[in-house]
Each structure stands twice: as C-alpha cells, then as structure tokens.
Amino acid sequence: MRILRVAQKLYPDTKGGGQYHVHAMSRDQAEMGHDVTVLTTKEGPDLPSVEETCGYTVVRLSPGVTIAGNDISPAVARYLWGIDGEEFDVIHAHSHLYFSTNLAALKRRLGDVPLAITNHGLYSQSATERVFDAYLRTLGRWTFEQADVVFCYTETDKRRVRDLGVRSRIEVVPNGIDTQRFTPDGPKSDLIESESLVVLFVGRLVKGKRPEDAIRAVARLQEQHPEINLYLCGDGPLRGTLEELVAKLGISESVYFLGHVPYDEMPRVYRSGDVLVLPSRAEGLPRTVLEAMASGVPAVCSQLDQLRELVDGRGELVDIKSTEAFARSVNNWLETDEVPTSVAGVQEWETTVEQTTSQLRSLVH
Questions:
Q1: pTM score > 0.85 for this model?
Q2: Does residue 33 come out as left (phi exceeding 0), alpha (psi in the -120 to 50 range) or beta?
Q3: Predicted confidence (pLDDT) per residue in 322-345, tens digit
C-alpha cells in the first residue's frame, strides 16, 4: 500500500506517546513493504523539508500560525489538495484534535482517497472541557464522520465517539507496547538513585498533564517518607514554573528534572521506580501507564474511565482534584508488599501494527 500518514507532530522532532506511535507505526509498516509518507509540520528551521528515515519518507511543511498548540498550516492544505489516488491508496490521519486532520477530512469529503482517523484521546489537554465539548459536537464530529474508519484504543472511547452521533465505522485497536523491552527483569537506570523511594512522572510538562499535582503529592509524603524522591521525565513550557514550585515547597533536594529521556533508556527508568503518577485531566490509552505496569510498577492515575479495568490490581484511579488522594494512594502502594499483577490484556505493539494495517488494507480493497 501507499500510505499517507497525516500527523501534526512526529517523533523525534517532538517527544510524546502519540508522536512515537506515529513514528513506530510508519517504521514498522515500511518494514512490512508498504510505501509510507508522513506529512507533518516543521518544528524548527534546521529540519529538512523532505527526509528518508527508518524506511519511510517525512514531508515537513511550514506550520503557518500556531494557536493553542495547533498549527493552522496553509502549506498542509495545499499538499493535501494536490494529491490523488494515483499517489496514495489511503490517508491515515492521527488525532481529530489537530487542524491537519480536519483538512484530511475535507480532502476525503471532496476526493476519492479513503481516510482512517486514529483517536488518540477524545479531549484536548490545551482547552477547557466546555470549549472542547462544543468542538466535538460540531467540527470534531464532522471530522470523524468523513472517515471510512475510526480507530479507538478502547471500547470506552468507541462508546464516547458513538455518543457524539458519529456514524462512521469504528474499530477498537488497542495501543500496544513492546513487552519484550518493558519488563521487570533487567538493569536499572543510572539516572535514578533507586536506593530511595522513587516516584515517577513521565510526560510533557504541560497544563493538561498536571505535573504540579505530582510535586504537591510528594511534598505531602515527605513527613512520612523523608527519603522519597520524584523524578520527572519530560520537558515542556511549565518547567520553570514547576522549578519555582519545588523551591517554594522546600523539596528541591527531592525532585529531579531529567528532561527528555531517550526511549531506549525508559525500560531502565521504569524498573528504577516504585510508583508512576499520571494526574492528567485527559488521555487516550497512555503508553506510559502500559510501559510502567509491564515493568512491574503500579500506576496512580486520575479517574479516566478507559483505564479502570487496565489499572485494576496494578494501581489506582483517584480524584483529579485531590492532591491528598494522590498522596494517600501513592503512600499505599509504597507501603504495600503486594506485587502488581501481570499485564494480561496489554497488547503487543506488533499486533497493533498488524491490526491497523489490515484495516487500512480493507479500505483499499
């Protein structure tokens, strides 16, 4: 197949679970013999406009105007308008949250190249729920409606999309991970002092991820566990603000900002941790939670319905508005001798690629 993958962000230009998903899917489909092109926007002027990497082609275009993290790119619109079925068999767009996916939907409406959309999480982390709910019931729903198939990670997200009134075919394809790489057995990371109690936060330092809740929870736990340390893996615009919060709370010696950690190092990082915290207000099926649990690390997360069955026995869902609840749950897992149950039900990444590719092939044939 000739696949055009549309994604505003791409790993390693930017870091994140969704970006890595796009990269790994493109890499592995190329290894299967498919001709894959990723259409994205430029993160910096030094990046090449066209590049061959890991077996697939990257086309980077001007982002145009960026509003609330969303690139409004006329260049992407022109590129999509200029393609047809002679160049690509199928378009696979990632996340209805981005203008580039809205454009891919418009292309499908006016053209004849079939379209798949992967829903990486229904709500945005950069807009209020009220604003985004209005978007979902108008342009967001229209975008999903143009797709020949919508991929959702969970039955919960499938139900949510259907509840919007979307009539397109919806297929559940769970987000998978490499369970041969992410395992409790193996070396720990030299980046982490694993002799102490270690709480991990893995993700972008942005408002929607609520990293400040992780910091406040650890500050509350200092009295019970003076040896506790928090390691934040990731970077983002909130880093300076978070460093100020750490200083204000007087826990500078217990909080470490590791910045971006290479993906190959992350299995060692998870093995060095005792608990992962994810206080996000919106997510799809977070790769970080899957990877942590596969590594034998319990996850304390905000109350995301799609995680309920997955986290059961391997962590806890708590009230996003209560730092005290996060601290209490983290403390419970630090003090328990219970070993988290196995990650039965977590899908292998290879299976995710195969299922996605099969669905795309069905659109072509």
A1: yes
A2: left
A3: 788 888 888 888 887 666 655 656
